[in-house]
Hints:
Layout: E1 3-9, E2 13-20, E3 25-32, E4 44-45, H1 47-65, E5 72-79, E6 85-87, E7 97-98, H2 106-116, H3 119-126, H4 135-145, H5 147-152, E8 155-157, H6 159-168, E9 172-174, H7 175-178, E10 184-185, E11 190-191, H8 193-198, E12 208-210, E13 215-218, H9 221-227, E14 234-240, H10 241-248, E15 255-261, E16 265-271, E17 283-286, E18 293-299, H11 303-313, H12 322-333, E19 344-346, E20 364-366, H13 374-398, E21 403-409, H14 416-426, E22 430-433, H15 439-450, H16 457-464, E23 467-471, H17 475-508
Parallel strand pairs: 1-5, 5-14, 9-12, 15-21, 21-22
Antiparallel strand pairs: 1-2, 2-3, 4-7, 6-8, 10-11, 13-14, 15-16, 16-18, 17-18, 19-20, 22-23
The structure holds adenosine-5'-diphosphate and 5-O-phosphono-D-xylulose.
5-O-phosphono-D-xylulose (5SP) binds at residues 10-11, 80-82, 100, 133, 180, 241-242, 262-264, 266, 298.
Amino acid sequence: MAHYLGIDIGTSGTKTLLIDETGHVVAEANAEYPMEQPKPGWTQQDPEHWWAATKKTVKAMMKKSGVDKADVKAIGLSGQMHGSVFLDRDDNVIRPALLWNDQRTADQCDQITSAAGSREKLIGMVANPALTGFQAPKVLWLRDNEKRNFDKLAKVLLPKDDIRRRLTGDYVTEVSDASGTLFLDVKKRDWSKELLGKLDLSTDLLPRVVESEDVTGTLTKEAAKVLGLTTQCKVVGGAGDCAAGAIGNGIVKSGLLSTSIGTSGVMFVHSDEPNVDASGRLHTFCHAVRGKWHMMGVNLTSGGSLQWWVDQVVQGLAGVPAAKRFEAATAEAEKAIAGSGGMLFLPYLNGERTPHADPNARGAFVGMNLTHDRAAMTRAVMEGITFALRDSLEIIESLGVPVRQIRASGGGSKNVFWRQMQADVFGKKITTLKVEQGPAFGVALLAAVGDGAYKHIAQACQATIEVAAETKADRSAKLTYNKLFPVYRSLYGSLKDDMHQLAELQSTN
Length: 509
Ligand SMILES: Nc1ncnc2c1ncn2[C@@H]1O[C@H](COP(=O)(O)OP(=O)(O)O)[C@@H](O)[C@H]1O
Ligand SMILES: O=C(CO)[C@@H](O)[C@H](O)COP(=O)(O)O
């Protein structure tokens, strides 16, 4: 039987899985790697770690599965979006890749906005404003700050597309991930020569752009040997991890929205047209569904805030094994009351993207009193993360985008208590899938479509994805959250100037 491989180059690690043509997951493997933070707000990674993790996980997974290598017909690639791998003429990586949550490019975002003429004109060209995590300001940062490296620059690739280069020898990206560079004319699904011209950058720096299910090449002899696969194995475009995760959740038609609590938080809604948020709070990107788009809100430190809280602060859980620490901390939080006794947490630990595009936003607990204990503080962290997602949901609804079903996903949504909290904070029913495998599953389905096992991705999702459970909002908790949410919303405006002063102090420490 034909089999399809999905590889997701995440921030904390790479996840690889193999499905058969019915969508059944046959085997999977994970490998972790570190993220460097040389200064507050700077994040980078060595692309060699991604390649080592790809080789390790594919080999381990093939061994576990016992599947004949000739039956692996195609590979789909997914990965953390927006990152920049800088290559010289001989394909050497020039410096560590800058990541999606790197905040060093505020000046370059201003440069791009003025080169475009105004924020509105920029949104008119590429459907999005300049945000610090995106790829275009990273290229300008290299030009402004590392001139010798910029002079060597021959190509800039997104993380998963650097893996494609090592697999097939081709420089190719696809529309969903390309949307997050800021170089793409999202409506036309091709590079914006207009913006590139205004930035004095050549299109030669960028790879070719295809649709997500298109076959971009086959494995080179060397890659097939190293991975234990064949040179007939195709590689399809794949998708940025948000669109890939959405495909894995079946978000392929109007009315469907997914929430994801991973390291980042994402509210993702399918759109038949390229609807643009004129004020640029939401991203408008191409979907991995041919000829469709999506809108999304992104929180930079979503589940990452709970991770920080549990790792750095909840010392009493020190003896609990890593895999059980989230469960232990959240079980304790469940004992506190909804609304955490009037205490709020702002999850802006590394700046924020939606709705406050602000690299200098910072986290805060507000409203603490002597009755508050650790359980209430953990609960406030979870509630703050969930309020941040509600911010995106409210913008999506205010733009008139239909939302008929919300599907919860990501590490945080595996937790029953957090799923209930999402239903209560959003004031809506939440749906979960029978098996939720995330981005690697989504791109394995795209590989199946590219190989011809399904006519299109909606058919593949229909055949393989099953809704399992529904969680309804609790009326009393919903009322409590409806009272707290306006206070949560107003806190950023009240604290912004102080946050900026503190961020300035932190950068000079
Ligand atoms: N059992 C759990 N209970 C509550 N939250 C969890 C649990 N497991 C994971 N999480 C949350 O999910 C996050 C990781 O999500 P995941 O989707 O696995 O990560 P990533 O986005 O890095 O690929 C953690 O930082 C944590 O906040
Ligand atoms: O920046 C975005 C999307 O715009 C992030 O969603 C990254 O793509 C996150 O990667 P992981 O945390 O899932 O590795």
